[in-house]
Amino acid sequence: MSKGIFNTLFSRMLSTYLAIVLLVVVLLGITIGAMFKNQYIGETENELRREAEEINRVIVTQYIDGEKRSVAKDSLLTTMRKYDAMLQLYFKDSAYGKVIFRDEQSSNKWETLSDADLSEEAKRVMEQGTDIEISSDRFTVGNISIMTLSRAIVDEAGKTIGAMFFHTDMSRTNDSIKQVSLDVLLSACVAVILAFLAVTYITGRMTKPIVDMNNAINRFSRGDYEARVSITSRDEVGQLGQSFNDMANEINALEQSRRSFVANVSHELRSPLTSMRGFLEAMQDGTIAPEDQPKYLDIVIGECKRMTGMVNDLLDLARIESGQYELKLEPFDLNELVIRTLLTFEARINAKHIDVAMDFAAEHTIVEADQSQIAQVIRNLVDNAIKFSPDGGKLTVKIATDKKLAVISVIDEGDGISPEDLPYVFDRFYKAEKAHTPSGSSSGLGLSIVKRIIEQHGQTITASSPPGEGATFTLTLKLYEQQGKPKASPSQRR
User: How far apart are the two ends of the chain, measured CA to CA in Å?
Assistant: First the structure.
């Protein structure tokens, strides 16, 4: 299905910004146009008011004087030509009657208005006195827009002697207003075009990181775990891109770990299954003599036990890493737990004539942890130490205290761990012949489980192996807060 025009962030932002810009430009255009219109009309009205005062002075001082009337007529006609206007005079004195002044030579556009009887309007104006009234819609002359000023004619004694109607053609004023409006419209169009270009550029700059991020996410969702976002800013969008890159790095690492995990599990399970199948088929078809079959059945049973242990370790590891296992924290004596664990390995210890040393800093070391989980940790570490201890060697378990922590160390006198392998001893399925686990005798998950358990307790475990001094595994646990200061005691040996 094709995308709608407003289905993208770019289009929505662009349309929103353009709508805002267009609205602002239109409002500014209307406001500026109205301001210029009001200014032009206001200036015209003010000019007409000044001329009305001058016309009143000419009429009072000259026109009503018969000797000066000709001069007054010329002055009034000059004013009419100046404004392309027409002047209608109405006098109370019937001797003067109705008088019209207009430029007969320039135009006949005032013919209609000249024939209009404004005597009733004149009576109203004379009754109002000297008040000036300006109107642009009272009188009409064809299609011509006119402005009419009406005023009472008052003599020097303040007596109203008549009324005047000063009609002026507003065409030139209106033309000026139209020209200004066109200029404003043209400027608005230019502003809209420039705003469109600017908004398009800015919107593109703002949305490009998001578009790039969307493309990277699409690539990532299709399995391209190398897809990353190019960070070009430090704003919220840049921070979002950095967060995506960090997430992508973690997911990529997890994916690599998952693939390695699956490959290792497949390898570790396929090898014993292939071996078991081969032995069983050989016994079935008689390749292996009946008297030799018990020996090979023991091998098959041993492989089954090893695979069962591996599956159980996988389940334990998955349960711990997924957070499904909830720690049952309780206080217990770590010394007693170590002693009980060592007793479970008594037969193997005696078989290899291993000397076990228990170096405890206190008679009782009370820690707060999940006892069953810590028991598994001690078992794994002791089991590895026994495997790598030579016949007649020494195995040492130390428990010391450091502020609020108990420090447990398991030390053997085996061949140790090579420097290149030491950083990987806690990795899942690290090759047994390279790690501190004998090849073919373990699932390769024991130390990984140990590390996850200790980390789940919020503590640490480390491995060290000085050349020629065996291997040492050291971990910490939280001391029980209500425990008193531990008392020193001599080393206990078994």
Answer: 78
